[in-house]
Amino acid sequence: MNQEDLAFTPALEQAQLIHDRQLSPLELVEVYLERIQRLNPLLGSYFTVIADLAMADAKAKTKMLADHSQELPPFFGVPISIKDLNSVAGVPCTLGNPTLINNILDYDDGVVTRIKQAGFIILGKTATSELGSFPYTEPAGFPPARNPWNLEYTPGGSSGGAAASVAAGLCPIAQGSDGGGSIRGPAACCGLVGIKPSRGRVSQAPAGDRISGLAVNGPLGRNVADAAALLDVMSGYITGDPYWLPDPETSFLSNTKEQPGNLRIAYSTSIPPLGDADATCQQAVLDTVKLLTELGHTVEEKCPDFSGLVQPFQTVWQSGIGAAGLPVEVLQPLNRWLLSRIGSAGEYLQAVLQMQIVCRQIVAFFDNIDVLVLPVYLHSPIKVGEWAHLSPEDTFQNIIHWVAPCPAANATGQPAIALPVGFDSNGLPTSVQLMGKPAAEATLIRLAAQLSAAKPGIDQRPEFVH
Question: What is the mean pLDDT of the chain?
Protein backbone atom coordinates (compact mmCIF):
# COMPACT_ATOMS: atom_id res chain seq x y z
CA MET A 1 0.00 0.00 0.00
CA ASN A 2 1.45 3.39 -0.98
CA GLN A 3 1.50 6.32 1.45
CA GLU A 4 -1.48 8.11 -0.08
CA ASP A 5 -3.62 4.98 0.03
CA LEU A 6 -2.58 4.48 3.63
CA ALA A 7 -3.50 8.06 4.51
CA PHE A 8 -7.02 7.50 3.17
CA THR A 9 -7.48 4.09 4.75
CA PRO A 10 -10.40 4.21 7.25
CA ALA A 11 -9.41 4.51 10.90
CA LEU A 12 -10.88 1.14 11.86
CA GLU A 13 -8.86 -0.57 9.12
CA GLN A 14 -5.71 1.22 10.27
CA ALA A 15 -6.37 0.00 13.81
CA GLN A 16 -6.73 -3.56 12.55
CA LEU A 17 -3.50 -3.35 10.58
CA ILE A 18 -1.71 -2.21 13.73
CA HIS A 19 -3.34 -4.91 15.86
CA ASP A 20 -2.22 -7.49 13.29
CA ARG A 21 1.34 -6.09 13.39
CA GLN A 22 1.21 -5.29 9.67
CA LEU A 23 1.68 -1.57 10.35
CA SER A 24 3.36 0.35 13.14
CA PRO A 25 2.05 3.53 14.81
CA LEU A 26 5.35 5.20 13.92
CA GLU A 27 4.97 4.45 10.20
CA LEU A 28 1.43 5.81 10.24
CA VAL A 29 2.23 8.99 12.13
CA GLU A 30 5.16 9.70 9.81
CA VAL A 31 2.80 9.47 6.81
CA TYR A 32 0.44 12.05 8.28
CA LEU A 33 3.11 14.45 9.52
CA GLU A 34 4.67 14.50 6.05
CA ARG A 35 1.29 15.26 4.49
CA ILE A 36 0.54 17.96 7.05
CA GLN A 37 3.91 19.64 6.42
CA ARG A 38 3.31 19.57 2.67
CA LEU A 39 -0.42 20.36 2.39
CA ASN A 40 -1.49 22.26 5.50
CA PRO A 41 0.08 25.58 4.40
CA LEU A 42 -2.39 25.55 1.48
CA LEU A 43 -5.30 24.11 3.44
CA GLY A 44 -5.16 25.87 6.82
CA SER A 45 -6.73 22.91 8.60
CA TYR A 46 -4.38 22.84 11.62
CA PHE A 47 -3.60 25.76 13.92
CA THR A 48 -1.04 23.74 15.92
CA VAL A 49 0.85 20.59 14.90
CA ILE A 50 2.45 18.72 17.81
CA ALA A 51 4.89 16.70 15.73
CA ASP A 52 7.38 16.04 18.54
CA LEU A 53 4.70 14.82 20.96
CA ALA A 54 3.05 12.70 18.26
CA MET A 55 6.36 11.11 17.27
CA ALA A 56 7.26 10.35 20.88
CA ASP A 57 3.85 8.75 21.44
CA ALA A 58 4.14 6.79 18.19
CA LYS A 59 7.61 5.48 19.08
CA ALA A 60 6.42 4.40 22.53
CA LYS A 61 3.37 2.63 21.09
CA THR A 62 5.47 0.95 18.41
CA LYS A 63 7.69 -0.50 21.12
CA MET A 64 4.61 -1.72 22.97
CA LEU A 65 3.57 -3.76 19.91
CA ALA A 66 6.48 -6.09 20.56
CA ASP A 67 4.67 -7.33 23.67
CA HIS A 68 2.17 -9.69 22.04
CA SER A 69 0.64 -10.56 25.40
CA GLN A 70 -0.67 -7.05 26.00
CA GLU A 71 -4.28 -6.32 25.13
CA LEU A 72 -4.47 -3.17 23.00
CA PRO A 73 -7.18 -0.50 23.17
CA PRO A 74 -9.44 -0.25 20.08
CA PHE A 75 -7.65 2.58 18.25
CA PHE A 76 -4.13 1.84 19.43
CA GLY A 77 -1.66 3.86 17.37
CA VAL A 78 -4.24 5.55 15.10
CA PRO A 79 -3.76 9.33 14.62
CA ILE A 80 -6.53 11.86 15.33
CA SER A 81 -6.97 15.63 15.47
CA ILE A 82 -8.61 17.70 18.23
CA LYS A 83 -10.58 20.88 17.56
CA ASP A 84 -8.98 24.00 19.03
CA LEU A 85 -11.92 24.71 21.31
CA ASN A 86 -10.93 21.73 23.46
CA SER A 87 -8.08 21.46 25.93
CA VAL A 88 -5.14 19.10 25.42
CA ALA A 89 -2.64 19.30 28.27
CA GLY A 90 0.55 21.10 27.32
CA VAL A 91 -0.79 22.31 23.94
CA PRO A 92 -2.07 25.81 23.08
CA CYS A 93 -5.82 26.30 23.09
CA THR A 94 -6.57 29.42 21.04
CA LEU A 95 -10.36 29.24 20.63
CA GLY A 96 -9.66 30.73 17.21
CA ASN A 97 -8.29 33.98 18.68
CA PRO A 98 -4.61 34.88 18.10
CA THR A 99 -4.26 36.57 21.50
CA LEU A 100 -4.54 33.08 23.02
CA ILE A 101 -1.72 31.56 20.97
CA ASN A 102 0.25 31.00 24.21
CA ASN A 103 -2.77 29.81 26.20
CA ILE A 104 -1.32 26.45 27.23
CA LEU A 105 -3.59 24.58 29.64
CA ASP A 106 -2.48 21.88 32.06
CA TYR A 107 -5.40 19.46 31.69
CA ASP A 108 -7.21 17.36 29.12
CA ASP A 109 -10.90 17.78 28.49
CA GLY A 110 -12.84 14.67 29.42
CA VAL A 111 -13.42 13.79 25.79
CA VAL A 112 -9.68 14.09 25.11
CA THR A 113 -8.94 11.76 28.02
CA ARG A 114 -11.28 9.17 26.51
CA ILE A 115 -9.64 9.57 23.11
CA LYS A 116 -6.20 9.01 24.62
CA GLN A 117 -7.45 5.99 26.59
CA ALA A 118 -8.66 4.47 23.31
CA GLY A 119 -5.07 4.50 22.05
CA PHE A 120 -5.26 7.41 19.62
CA ILE A 121 -2.20 9.56 18.87
CA ILE A 122 -3.02 13.28 18.70
CA LEU A 123 -1.43 15.07 15.74
CA GLY A 124 -2.51 18.60 16.60
CA LYS A 125 -5.28 21.15 17.09
CA THR A 126 -7.53 21.94 14.14
CA ALA A 127 -8.75 25.31 12.96
CA THR A 128 -12.01 26.75 14.25
CA SER A 129 -13.84 30.00 13.77
CA GLU A 130 -13.37 32.45 16.64
CA LEU A 131 -15.11 30.99 19.72
CA GLY A 132 -16.75 28.51 17.36
CA SER A 133 -19.23 31.20 16.36
CA PHE A 134 -19.39 30.95 12.57
CA PRO A 135 -20.16 28.33 9.88
CA TYR A 136 -16.94 29.19 8.05
CA THR A 137 -13.39 29.06 9.44
CA GLU A 138 -11.62 32.36 8.76
CA PRO A 139 -10.48 33.72 12.14
CA ALA A 140 -8.36 36.87 12.15
CA GLY A 141 -4.67 36.17 12.66
CA PHE A 142 -4.78 32.69 11.11
CA PRO A 143 -4.86 31.49 7.50
CA PRO A 144 -8.41 30.64 6.41
CA ALA A 145 -9.30 26.97 6.32
CA ARG A 146 -10.09 25.78 2.80
CA ASN A 147 -12.16 22.98 1.33
CA PRO A 148 -9.96 20.19 -0.09
CA TRP A 149 -12.47 19.55 -2.87
CA ASN A 150 -12.17 23.13 -4.14
CA LEU A 151 -9.73 25.48 -2.40
CA GLU A 152 -11.77 28.56 -3.30
CA TYR A 153 -14.55 27.40 -0.96
CA THR A 154 -14.97 27.08 2.79
CA PRO A 155 -14.87 23.71 4.55
CA GLY A 156 -17.59 25.09 6.83
CA GLY A 157 -17.35 25.84 10.51
CA SER A 158 -16.81 25.89 13.24
CA SER A 159 -15.22 22.43 12.96
CA GLY A 160 -13.91 23.44 9.54
CA GLY A 161 -10.29 22.50 10.21
CA ALA A 162 -11.34 19.10 11.56
CA ALA A 163 -13.38 18.32 8.45
CA ALA A 164 -10.74 19.61 6.04
CA SER A 165 -8.01 17.58 7.76
CA VAL A 166 -9.92 14.32 7.32
CA ALA A 167 -11.10 15.05 3.78
CA ALA A 168 -7.54 15.91 2.68
CA GLY A 169 -5.95 12.87 4.29
CA LEU A 170 -4.15 14.85 7.01
CA CYS A 171 -5.66 12.54 9.63
CA PRO A 172 -8.02 9.57 9.36
CA ILE A 173 -10.66 10.76 11.83
CA ALA A 174 -11.37 13.87 13.90
CA GLN A 175 -13.05 15.21 17.00
CA GLY A 176 -15.36 18.18 16.55
CA SER A 177 -18.13 19.99 18.38
CA ASP A 178 -21.58 21.19 17.39
CA GLY A 179 -23.57 24.04 18.96
CA GLY A 180 -25.65 24.95 15.91
CA GLY A 181 -24.43 22.71 13.10
CA SER A 182 -20.67 22.93 13.65
CA ILE A 183 -20.07 19.20 13.02
CA ARG A 184 -22.80 18.57 10.47
CA GLY A 185 -22.05 21.62 8.32
CA PRO A 186 -18.32 20.96 7.86
CA ALA A 187 -19.03 17.26 7.31
CA ALA A 188 -21.45 18.24 4.55
CA CYS A 189 -19.05 20.72 2.97
CA CYS A 190 -16.21 18.18 2.94
CA GLY A 191 -18.04 14.92 2.11
CA LEU A 192 -17.75 13.28 5.53
CA VAL A 193 -20.01 11.58 8.03
CA GLY A 194 -20.56 13.86 11.02
CA ILE A 195 -22.56 12.87 14.09
CA LYS A 196 -24.12 15.41 16.43
CA PRO A 197 -24.89 13.19 19.45
CA SER A 198 -27.80 13.51 21.84
CA ARG A 199 -27.49 15.88 24.76
CA GLY A 200 -25.86 14.01 27.62
CA ARG A 201 -24.24 11.39 25.42
CA VAL A 202 -20.73 12.93 25.51
CA SER A 203 -19.39 14.66 28.60
CA GLN A 204 -18.29 18.30 28.67
CA ALA A 205 -15.98 17.62 31.66
CA PRO A 206 -14.10 19.05 33.43
CA ALA A 207 -16.05 22.25 32.92
CA GLY A 208 -19.75 22.22 32.21
CA ASP A 209 -22.25 23.85 29.93
CA ARG A 210 -22.35 27.52 28.99
CA ILE A 211 -25.36 27.67 26.70
CA SER A 212 -28.16 25.50 28.10
CA GLY A 213 -27.07 22.24 26.48
CA LEU A 214 -26.87 23.45 22.87
CA ALA A 215 -23.30 22.27 22.24
CA VAL A 216 -21.91 18.73 22.25
CA ASN A 217 -18.69 17.02 21.16
CA GLY A 218 -18.89 14.50 18.35
CA PRO A 219 -17.02 12.61 15.60
CA LEU A 220 -16.19 13.26 11.96
CA GLY A 221 -15.12 10.31 9.81
CA ARG A 222 -14.89 9.15 6.22
CA ASN A 223 -17.59 6.52 6.72
CA VAL A 224 -20.39 5.63 9.10
CA ALA A 225 -18.44 2.87 10.87
CA ASP A 226 -15.49 5.12 11.74
CA ALA A 227 -17.79 7.87 13.05
CA ALA A 228 -19.85 5.38 15.07
CA ALA A 229 -16.73 3.80 16.59
CA LEU A 230 -15.35 7.19 17.62
CA LEU A 231 -18.72 8.02 19.18
CA ASP A 232 -18.37 4.83 21.24
CA VAL A 233 -15.00 6.10 22.46
CA MET A 234 -16.26 9.60 23.28
CA SER A 235 -19.52 8.63 25.00
CA GLY A 236 -20.23 8.24 28.67
CA TYR A 237 -20.99 10.05 31.91
CA ILE A 238 -18.24 11.74 33.93
CA THR A 239 -18.98 12.62 37.54
CA GLY A 240 -20.80 15.91 37.86
CA ASP A 241 -22.11 16.22 34.30
CA PRO A 242 -25.25 18.40 34.20
CA TYR A 243 -26.83 16.11 31.57
CA TRP A 244 -26.39 12.38 31.10
CA LEU A 245 -27.83 9.37 29.33
CA PRO A 246 -27.54 5.69 30.20
CA ASP A 247 -24.98 3.77 28.19
CA PRO A 248 -26.49 2.16 25.07
CA GLU A 249 -27.31 -1.54 25.20
CA THR A 250 -24.96 -2.27 22.29
CA SER A 251 -22.07 -0.34 20.78
CA PHE A 252 -22.75 2.24 18.09
CA LEU A 253 -20.27 0.44 15.86
CA SER A 254 -22.26 -2.80 16.12
CA ASN A 255 -25.33 -0.91 14.89
CA THR A 256 -23.63 -0.27 11.55
CA LYS A 257 -24.03 -4.01 10.90
CA GLU A 258 -27.73 -4.09 11.85
CA GLN A 259 -30.69 -3.36 9.58
CA PRO A 260 -32.89 -0.46 10.71
CA GLY A 261 -36.19 -2.21 9.97
CA ASN A 262 -39.04 -0.40 8.26
CA LEU A 263 -38.98 3.15 9.59
CA ARG A 264 -41.49 5.99 9.51
CA ILE A 265 -39.62 8.82 7.84
CA ALA A 266 -40.59 12.44 7.25
CA TYR A 267 -38.75 14.89 5.03
CA SER A 268 -38.70 18.54 4.08
CA THR A 269 -36.67 20.73 1.74
CA SER A 270 -37.66 23.96 3.50
CA ILE A 271 -37.32 25.35 7.01
CA PRO A 272 -40.21 27.66 7.85
CA PRO A 273 -39.95 30.59 8.37
CA LEU A 274 -36.44 30.83 6.89
CA GLY A 275 -37.12 29.51 3.43
CA ASP A 276 -36.40 26.77 0.91
CA ALA A 277 -33.15 24.98 0.22
CA ASP A 278 -31.45 25.72 -3.10
CA ALA A 279 -31.92 23.34 -6.00
CA THR A 280 -28.79 21.31 -5.23
CA CYS A 281 -29.65 20.77 -1.58
CA GLN A 282 -33.28 20.02 -2.42
CA GLN A 283 -32.26 17.41 -4.96
CA ALA A 284 -29.99 15.70 -2.43
CA VAL A 285 -32.98 15.28 -0.10
CA LEU A 286 -35.33 14.14 -2.87
CA ASP A 287 -32.84 11.57 -4.18
CA THR A 288 -32.41 10.26 -0.65
CA VAL A 289 -36.17 10.07 -0.16
CA LYS A 290 -36.50 8.05 -3.36
CA LEU A 291 -33.84 5.62 -2.15
CA LEU A 292 -35.50 5.33 1.27
CA THR A 293 -38.78 4.42 -0.41
CA GLU A 294 -37.04 1.79 -2.51
CA LEU A 295 -35.53 0.38 0.70
CA GLY A 296 -39.01 -0.17 2.08
CA HIS A 297 -39.42 2.72 4.49
CA THR A 298 -42.66 4.67 4.87
CA VAL A 299 -41.93 8.23 3.76
CA GLU A 300 -44.06 11.38 3.84
CA GLU A 301 -43.40 15.08 3.36
CA LYS A 302 -43.88 17.00 6.59
CA CYS A 303 -41.81 18.98 9.07
CA PRO A 304 -42.11 20.34 12.61
CA ASP A 305 -42.83 24.03 13.03
CA PHE A 306 -39.48 25.69 13.76
CA SER A 307 -40.81 29.25 13.54
CA GLY A 308 -40.90 29.90 17.29
CA LEU A 309 -37.36 28.68 17.79
CA VAL A 310 -35.35 31.25 15.81
CA GLN A 311 -35.32 34.19 18.21
CA PRO A 312 -34.87 32.38 21.54
CA PHE A 313 -32.18 30.15 20.05
CA GLN A 314 -30.24 33.21 18.89
CA THR A 315 -30.47 34.78 22.35
CA VAL A 316 -29.21 31.65 24.11
CA TRP A 317 -26.56 30.80 21.51
CA GLN A 318 -24.93 34.25 21.35
CA SER A 319 -24.61 34.32 25.14
CA GLY A 320 -21.71 31.91 24.68
CA ILE A 321 -19.62 34.77 23.31
CA GLY A 322 -19.97 36.63 26.58
CA ALA A 323 -19.35 33.46 28.57
CA ALA A 324 -15.95 33.05 26.89
CA GLY A 325 -14.74 36.05 28.88
CA LEU A 326 -12.50 37.62 26.24
CA PRO A 327 -12.15 41.42 26.13
CA VAL A 328 -14.36 42.96 23.47
CA GLU A 329 -11.40 44.70 21.81
CA VAL A 330 -9.72 41.41 20.84
CA LEU A 331 -12.81 39.95 19.15
CA GLN A 332 -13.60 39.94 15.44
CA PRO A 333 -16.22 42.50 14.34
CA LEU A 334 -19.10 40.02 14.12
CA ASN A 335 -18.45 38.65 17.59
CA ARG A 336 -18.14 42.21 18.92
CA TRP A 337 -21.52 43.03 17.41
CA LEU A 338 -23.09 39.87 18.83
CA LEU A 339 -21.60 40.62 22.25
CA SER A 340 -23.21 44.07 22.18
CA ARG A 341 -26.63 42.45 21.69
CA ILE A 342 -26.48 40.23 24.77
CA GLY A 343 -29.22 41.24 27.19
CA SER A 344 -29.83 40.71 30.88
CA ALA A 345 -29.83 37.44 32.80
CA GLY A 346 -33.61 37.68 32.94
CA GLU A 347 -33.84 37.97 29.15
CA TYR A 348 -31.55 34.97 28.80
CA LEU A 349 -33.71 32.86 31.11
CA GLN A 350 -36.87 33.96 29.32
CA ALA A 351 -35.30 32.84 26.04
CA VAL A 352 -34.35 29.48 27.59
CA LEU A 353 -37.96 29.01 28.73
CA GLN A 354 -39.38 29.92 25.33
CA MET A 355 -36.89 27.65 23.57
CA GLN A 356 -37.85 24.75 25.81
CA ILE A 357 -41.57 25.26 25.11
CA VAL A 358 -40.96 25.16 21.34
CA CYS A 359 -38.65 22.16 21.75
CA ARG A 360 -41.46 20.19 23.42
CA GLN A 361 -43.53 20.70 20.27
CA ILE A 362 -40.65 19.65 18.02
CA VAL A 363 -39.93 16.50 20.02
CA ALA A 364 -43.64 15.65 20.03
CA PHE A 365 -43.49 15.55 16.22
CA PHE A 366 -41.31 12.46 16.59
CA ASP A 367 -43.99 10.55 18.52
CA ASN A 368 -45.13 9.16 15.18
CA ILE A 369 -41.91 9.62 13.19
CA ASP A 370 -38.59 7.79 13.55
CA VAL A 371 -36.37 9.99 11.39
CA LEU A 372 -36.63 13.40 9.76
CA VAL A 373 -34.61 13.97 6.57
CA LEU A 374 -33.53 17.57 5.98
CA PRO A 375 -30.84 19.45 4.09
CA VAL A 376 -27.76 20.15 6.20
CA TYR A 377 -27.54 23.74 4.99
CA LEU A 378 -30.00 25.65 2.80
CA HIS A 379 -27.45 26.30 0.06
CA SER A 380 -24.09 25.07 -1.18
CA PRO A 381 -20.82 26.22 0.45
CA ILE A 382 -19.76 29.82 0.11
CA LYS A 383 -16.36 30.91 -1.15
CA VAL A 384 -13.61 31.82 1.31
CA GLY A 385 -14.10 35.49 2.17
CA GLU A 386 -17.41 35.72 0.32
CA TRP A 387 -19.15 37.60 3.14
CA ALA A 388 -16.12 39.58 4.36
CA HIS A 389 -17.39 42.86 2.88
CA LEU A 390 -20.78 42.66 4.60
CA SER A 391 -21.81 44.39 7.80
CA PRO A 392 -22.02 42.23 10.93
CA GLU A 393 -25.82 42.41 10.83
CA ASP A 394 -26.03 41.31 7.20
CA THR A 395 -23.46 38.56 7.75
CA PHE A 396 -25.45 37.24 10.71
CA GLN A 397 -28.66 37.17 8.71
CA ASN A 398 -26.89 35.22 5.97
CA ILE A 399 -25.60 32.78 8.58
CA ILE A 400 -29.07 32.27 10.07
CA HIS A 401 -30.51 31.43 6.65
CA TRP A 402 -27.65 29.16 5.57
CA VAL A 403 -27.55 26.97 8.68
CA ALA A 404 -31.33 26.98 9.26
CA PRO A 405 -31.80 23.17 9.19
CA CYS A 406 -29.26 22.57 11.97
CA PRO A 407 -30.10 24.44 15.21
CA ALA A 408 -33.30 22.54 16.01
CA ALA A 409 -31.37 19.40 16.99
CA ASN A 410 -29.13 21.49 19.25
CA ALA A 411 -32.11 23.12 20.92
CA THR A 412 -33.99 19.86 21.52
CA GLY A 413 -30.90 17.79 22.26
CA GLN A 414 -31.81 15.21 19.62
CA PRO A 415 -29.18 13.33 17.61
CA ALA A 416 -28.48 14.10 13.95
CA ILE A 417 -26.11 12.84 11.25
CA ALA A 418 -24.75 14.52 8.13
CA LEU A 419 -24.34 11.93 5.37
CA PRO A 420 -22.61 12.54 2.00
CA VAL A 421 -24.65 11.64 -1.07
CA GLY A 422 -22.82 13.07 -4.12
CA PHE A 423 -21.33 16.22 -5.67
CA ASP A 424 -22.53 19.55 -7.03
CA SER A 425 -21.51 21.42 -10.18
CA ASN A 426 -18.51 23.01 -8.40
CA GLY A 427 -17.13 19.61 -7.48
CA LEU A 428 -18.18 20.06 -3.86
CA PRO A 429 -19.87 17.29 -1.88
CA THR A 430 -23.61 17.24 -1.29
CA SER A 431 -25.16 15.79 1.85
CA VAL A 432 -28.37 15.22 3.75
CA GLN A 433 -29.18 15.38 7.44
CA LEU A 434 -30.92 12.62 9.38
CA MET A 435 -32.49 13.78 12.66
CA GLY A 436 -33.73 11.15 15.11
CA LYS A 437 -35.75 10.67 18.25
CA PRO A 438 -34.12 11.68 21.55
CA ALA A 439 -31.22 9.38 22.45
CA ALA A 440 -31.80 7.33 19.28
CA GLU A 441 -28.33 7.50 17.71
CA ALA A 442 -28.52 3.74 17.10
CA THR A 443 -31.47 4.13 14.73
CA LEU A 444 -29.74 6.92 12.80
CA ILE A 445 -26.50 4.95 12.54
CA ARG A 446 -28.33 1.88 11.24
CA LEU A 447 -30.17 3.96 8.64
CA ALA A 448 -27.04 5.87 7.62
CA ALA A 449 -25.18 2.58 7.17
CA GLN A 450 -28.03 1.18 5.09
CA LEU A 451 -28.10 4.26 2.85
CA SER A 452 -24.32 4.23 2.44
CA ALA A 453 -24.33 0.56 1.48
CA ALA A 454 -27.14 1.08 -1.04
CA LYS A 455 -25.53 4.13 -2.67
CA PRO A 456 -22.03 5.18 -1.54
CA GLY A 457 -21.93 8.97 -1.68
CA ILE A 458 -18.19 9.69 -1.82
CA ASP A 459 -15.83 7.16 -3.36
CA GLN A 460 -12.96 9.33 -4.58
CA ARG A 461 -10.36 11.73 -3.22
CA PRO A 462 -9.92 15.46 -3.78
CA GLU A 463 -7.51 16.20 -6.63
CA PHE A 464 -5.75 18.66 -4.34
CA VAL A 465 -4.30 15.90 -2.18
CA HIS A 466 -2.45 13.90 -4.87
Answer: 96
